[in-house]
Every structure is written in structure tokens, then in C-alpha cells.
Amino acid sequence: MHNTTVNNRLSARRGVEWYKEAYELFKKAPFALIALSIANILASLVFSQIPVLGYFLQIASGMVFSFGSCLVIDQLYRAGTFQWHLLLAPIKSRPMEILGFWILSLMPYLMGIAMAGLFLITTAALNFEQIRAGAGQIYAGQVAEGSVTLFSFISPSGYLILFFIGLLTALVSLSMQFFGGYLIVLSHLDPVEAVKLSIKGTFSNAGAMTLAGLMGVGLIFLAILTLGIGLFVVVPILALVTYRAYCDIFRSTEADSLQIQTNSLPSNRDPSQ
Fold first, then answer.
1. Element of type H or E holding 103
2. What is the pTM of this model?
3. Where are the domains of the chain?
């Protein structure tokens, strides 16, 4: 029985402090972390070139790097060492939990697609005759400016509804995935409980998470300005930020031993002790 609790009393400034702590942790193994980022990106690019099978290989590779990184980063924090072989440990020890979590993570997208589809179907049904007439014109090659189509009947408020459906889908999906990997690999929770706690932890610390997210977007933008080269550094930094957030939010009973001073990161201390 794992008593993982959510600390919902974090101040917004913790979102900034996570980056300071992540940078201190990054300095312990910068080249290994960058190599891990490059390997992940290259694997995805290579598999994307393979028809059909490549899609499933991308998913498998993403699972290995995503869940394996959780264990690698935790070991880096606890012992100060970067161990490549740990990348495969989670996928070997908890394959069904990881697969279950991946399936659950697709649900918000499927629900978002269903909601948007229902909205469009309803719009089409309410304006069926006009849309059918417009479709007939297009079929006959009589397309002119202002021709009647389905999208002609979507009002500005309708587009706003579609926007909010997409935004809600993205927020729920991200909140599920932020800490799901760590909760499965490090807290040993089942996929459903991991999803529930990840969402709870994200929204109950909305201030810190929002500030950290905005800073992350800014870093990604700056990295893109370097022709994408900066992403090899930004991506591992963001992963380390997520780890520090996980430690803060889901290990509240160990807060004293987990606290990192920005000028001194412990290299060989087990935060569970």
C-alpha cells in the first residue's frame, strides 16, 4: 500500500525555484542528459521514416525514454550518477501499467474529438438543406466566393466553443501526463491512481505549475531561435523541472530531506531516509 499524498500548499514562486534546482541537477551530468535528449529525438526521427510499423516503434521508443528517464533522473538525484541501463528497467518491470497509462492518456484526445465532432454534426443537422445545396454546387464545379459550406454556419461563438474544447483537451491531457510516469515508476501506483493524482497535483498547485509552464514555453521559444540546437539542453532541463515538481508535490512528508538549496545540491543522499 503506497501512501502517496498531494501537497497543495506550494507557493507560485516554487515554479521558478524548480528551474534553479533543475539546473543544479543538470550540472551533475550535462553531457549524458544532452545525449539522452539527442538519442530520444533521433530514435523518433528514424522510426518516423518506416511505414506503418514505424508508428508503433515510435510509441515503444517514446515509452522507453519517457518512463526510463524517470528512473534515470531519480538515480542521478539520489546517488549523483547517470546510469543508462536504467532506461529499460521500467518497461521490463511494469509493462502492463505503462501500457495502461498510455491508453488512458489517449482518452482526453478521443473525448475532445468526439465533442468537436458532435458539435459539427449538430451544426450540419440544423443547416442540412443549405449545406446540401452548397455541396451540390461544389460537386458541379460551380465554386464561387462565399459558397455555402458547413463552416459557413459556424458563428464566432461556435469557433470559440471549438477552441475551448481543444484547450480543455490539452489541459486535461497534460495534467495527466505531467507526473503520471513518476507516479508509476517511483511511487509504484497503478495507471488509474497515477492519472487521478497527477491531475489533482497539477490543478491543486496551479500557481506554481502555471509559472513553470510559462517559463518552459519561453525557454522553448529561445531554443527554437538557435535553429533548434538549444532544445537539446532545454528538453532535459524541463524533464528535471518536472522531477523537482514531483518531489515537491507528491512527497510532502519528506519535504525537509528533499529540499535543495540552489547553491548546493546533495550528491549522495537518499531523500526517502
1. helix 95-126
2. 0.75
3. 14-142+168-258
